[in-house]
Amino acid sequence: MRTHNRQLVNTLMHSVIFWIFAFQSYAFFRYFGLEQASLVPGVQEVEKVILVSPYSIALYIGLGLGVLYGIVDFFYEKYFLKKLGLGLGLVVNTLLHFAAIIFVFTASLTVISKIFSVGIQLEAGWWFHQKRFWAVIWYVLLCSVVASFIKIARERFGAGTFIKMLLGTYKIPKEEQRIFMFLDLKDATGIAEKLGHHLYSQFLQDCFFDLNEILRAYDAEIYQYVGDEAVLSWNYDRGLNRQNCVSIFFAFNKKRENRLSYYLQKYGVFPEFKAGLHGGSVMVAEVGFVKKELAYHGDVLNTCARIQAACNTHQVSLLISEQLLHELQSTSSTVIDADYLGAVLLKGKNNRVKIHAIQRNF
Q1: What value does the mean pLDDT of the chain take?
Q2: Does the predicted model carry a pTM greater than 0.90?
Q3: Cα separation of 167 and 99, whole Å?
Q4: Where are the beta strands (DSSP E) in 186-324?
Q5: What are the residue ranges of CATH 3.30.70.1230 in the chain?
Q6: What pLDDT was estimated at residue 141?
Q7: d(CA 316, CA 254)
Q8: 3-state SS, residue 272
Q9: Does domain 159-358 have CATH number 3.40.50.720?
């Protein structure tokens, strides 16, 4: 429930901010410098009243549209995105947005008419023959395209990282403190042989879809998908906050357990994952020109991958480096229940690394 509430709040916040800005921009470019102007037909009689100036009306419409679009997008992603193909999904989402904007305009005009006795007549289908409305629809469509690109970029890189890339921060490699989790499917080879490559691909889609649904609640970013493995990343503050980098593993387990019957009915097997956690200094840089992406370089990633691989040796699901464990415990009063496994020589490493197993949530 907490995860869904945070996702809804985040979606609404981003949607409201974007659409208020979009409609304020529309009002500015359309009506700036005009003495006799109105954003909607029928309110010229009260144009001198500040509450129904073009900019005020744009604020109301942007707020209403932002809330409705946010709700539509939240439930669309939750219940329809996974089930519909890209083309059909775009059609459904567009129709939902179209219905939302008709509702917002109708509600706005009705409220203005009632409060200020303007006498706006809104017969059924008023919007069909209203040219000004279709001009706004075209503008909304263009803004929706921009919003979609921004959303894709934010999901791809993370909100903070996206802004830094726009500013060219990583054109020259930068050093950052980051936490990584290498999350890998247990017995992937055996499951793949049992299901076959087609059903196995759907199986991985379902697993990572469940993972994606909880990312925002724990401020996590997906760095890479590598076959049946996902690499998650946090900056240090977000990863340590509320012990997000550890909590997400158990939240992911709970998410899949809630769909146990679905996995067993469709695939005949329940997915279990193992993970390794480590953090430290890495270099961050933009790489490539075609299919440009953000890359992290440093021993932290190699060590984290080796820690995850050691899960098989110690027969545990979650391993964490002692360094990161101490940093987590120093920033929170909540004690993590961890078992010390000793200083182990990880494959490919010259120096021993102290690791701990976290057997259950805390």
Answers
A1: 80
A2: no
A3: 36
A4: 221-226, 229-235, 273-287, 293-297, 318-321
A5: 159-358
A6: 78
A7: 17
A8: coil
A9: no
